[in-house]
Design a protein that fits this description.
three-stranded mixed sheet, Hypothetical protein af1432, 70% helix, GMP Synthetase, Chain A, domain 3, 14 helices, mainly alpha, 7% strand, 8 strands
């Protein structure tokens, strides 16, 4: 009974749930349909509003376009009116120009007729003057020009002579003042460099240790360093001799290190040599840096500064080349400031004028040629290169800066105490050069110039042809090499020329 009741209750519950579910679904569907209709109505209303707004905006745009069109038309009309007016004005001006042209043509015709009448009258007057003066027109013209030219030439010559003489006096006086002022402001030392170096010894026993068993130590030392060690009777000292000043100084430092160490044998010589070479290299670098710093030069590359430092160990006629170059640079700076020249060019040219001497003991060529090669290698300015090239007068000065460098070189080398080479020795060397040249047959005369760096030999053209002159130059050079001692190179120049002079009396 209970089971039946449960079944009936379950069936009734299911039926009631089904109808309730169906009723809720219908209610929701009706609500959704009403909402959809409402949204659709709102969309239609918005569509009508948007269409109305678009129509209003289109009407406004159309009206603005019509307004702009009217304005553009008005502007075009105004431009057309102006163009028509200008065209009318141009037509009027063209007509005026045409009338002016006709008037000018008429006036030119009148002027031409008047000119012809004047020329005819002038010819008649000239004919009358020719009859009176008994001279033709060309003769009178020539006579007048000759007198005028002579009169003007005499006046001009007198004026030129006066101006040249005055200019020379003024230039010489001003040059003396500038050079004297520069020399007074530059202090310089007296030269004392030689081609030998003396090394002090603690005792006489050290000489034997330097020589070594069977001369082994001294031979190794001389071969390795390229110098000559002189062990003589000088007490407690040995002498190092060598033409290369840098190598000689390295040898001196090496020997001093060996003496200080006390152990002298070939292996120690090599070890001391390497240390001395590094020390001297550092000294060279510091000397170059100090020189460019002292002159305020910042444009030089490190390798060029290193070459400048080598000049500290180079001397010429007893004068230290680096001190000589610094002296020139300071003197040249003062002269350049007085003359308004380029001070930096003068400084660089003076400091580098003998830079070739840093390498002339190791390479072939004159110090001028080597200096020019170095300057070109480091891309120095053309004015600096010319100052190096022209400081012995081998080429022409292309700038006032080059002339200043040349003048400072002569002043620095000529001042008292600058060089050890005495006046008598200098004259003797020049006489020996000329004596060798004059000893050859066919030589008319010879002159030693450029402080003995060049010998010019004049030959008799009737006794010697071109091939013989070339042979003579080679023979003179060979004789000079064999018989004379001199630094650098000597240029032998043989000149063969024929001059014919005749007098018309």
């Amino acid at each position: 009974m209970n089971s039946l009741f449960l079944v009936v209750a379950l069936a009734v519950g299911l039926a009631v749930g089904y109808f309730l579910r169906k009723f809720q679904a219908k209610s929701r569907i009706g609500t959704a349909e009403r909402r959809a209709e409402k949204l659709l109505e709102e969309a239609r209303q918005k569509e009508k509003e948007v269409v109305l707004q678009a129509k209003d905006q289109a009407i406004k745009i159309t009206e603005e376009a019509k307004k702009q069109e009217n304005e553009i038309r008005q502007q075009i009309l105004r431009i057309q009116e102006r163009l028509e007016k200008k065209e009318t004005d141009l037509d009027e001006r063209a007509k005026e120009l045409e009338r002016g042209k006709k008037d000018l043509e008429a006036k030119n015709e009148d002027l031409k007729k008047l000119k012809d009448e004047l020329m005819a009258g002038k010819d008649k007057q000239l004919e009358a003057l020719e009859k009176i003066a008994k001279l033709s027109r060309e003769e009178a013209k020539t006579l007048l020009m000759d007198h005028t030219e002579k009169f003007v030439k005499d006046d001009m010559l007198g004026l030129v002579r006066k101006l040249v003489a005055q200019a020379r006096e003024d230039a010489e006086r001003e040059a003396r003042e500038i050079v004297t002022h520069a020399i007074e402001r530059v202090s310089a030392e007296v030269s004392s460099e030689t081609t030998t170096s003396t090394v002090a010894l603690p005792n006489e026993e050290m000489k034997g240790r330097i020589i070594g068993k069977e001369g082994r130590n001294i031979k190794t030392f001389e071969q390795m360093l390229g110098v000559e060690v002189i062990v003589d009777e000088t007490p407690d000292a040995v002498i190092i001799s060598g033409f290369n000043s840098v190598r000689r100084y390295v040898a001196k430092v090496t020997l001093e290190k060996l003496i200080k160490d006390g152990r002298i044998h070939p292996a120690k010589v090599e070890e001391a040599y390497e240390k001395a070479k590094k020390e001297v290299g550092q000294m060279i670098k510091e000397a170059g840096e100090e020189a460019v710093y002292e002159l305020g030069i910042t444009a030089f590359p490190p390798k060029l500064v290193q070459l400048i430092g080598r000049l500290k160990f180079r001397s010429s006629y007893g004068q230290n080349v680096l001190k000589h170059s610094l002296e020139m640079a300071k003197m040249g700076t003062l002269i350049a400031e007085e003359l308004g020249a380029d001070v930096q060019v003068v400084k660089q040219g003076a400091l580098l004028h003998d830079i070739g001497k840093a390498l002339d003991q190791d390479m072939e060529g004159t110090h001028v040629e080597l200096g020019v090669q170095i300057a070109k290698k480091f891309d120095l300015p053309d004015k600096v290169i010319n100052a190096i090239q022209a400081h012995h007068g081998d080429v022409e000065h292309l700038s006032i800066e080059a002339a200043i460098v040349d003048a400072c070189d002569n002043i620095s080398g000529a001042r008292p105490g600058a060089r050890k080479d005495s006046y008598e020795q200098y004259i003797k060397r020049l006489e020996e050069l000329e004596k060798i040249a004059n000893s050859f047959e066919g030589v008319e005369k010879s002159y030693a110039i450029q402080a003995g760096r060049e010998i010019r030999v004049f030959v008799e053209p009737a006794k010697m042809d071109d091939w013989a002159a070339m042979k003579l130059a080679r023979e003179v050079a060979n004789r000079i090499q064999q018989e004379l001692k001199y630094p650098g190179e000597i240029k032998v120049q043989v000149i063969r020329e024929l001059r014919v002079v005749e007098y018309a009396r």
